Fold:
Amino acid sequence: MAALFGFDTAVTYEKRLALLRESGVALWDVAYQCVRQGSLDSAIEIESVVANDFELFFKTYPQIRAIFFNGRKAEELYRRLVQPNLSPECKQIGAHLLPSTSPANAAMNRTQKLTSWKKVRDTLENS
Structure:
């Protein structure tokens, strides 16, 4: 995101979040809570997942026009646990799968990931 929006990754996490907000990006997990052993998404125990309240999120921030998932697991959780419960108007918000930025996603190099992730910036510039 720093490469897309031109900010320094050396700043604090709080400052990076503020810079994302200033760029028009909200950062939010699909899962409010879950159980998993270790840090891999594949270790998430699906029956333990409690999704964040996206309906409330979308109504609180009506300027949201698109969602971008950082990898397949986030998209899967959203489509399985969130989307079926959304109102028709909230279901109209575009949802886009992007490649995981995790180093565990070794199938793509940084340049390839960045090229895919430019869709976030392009969407913001065109809305």
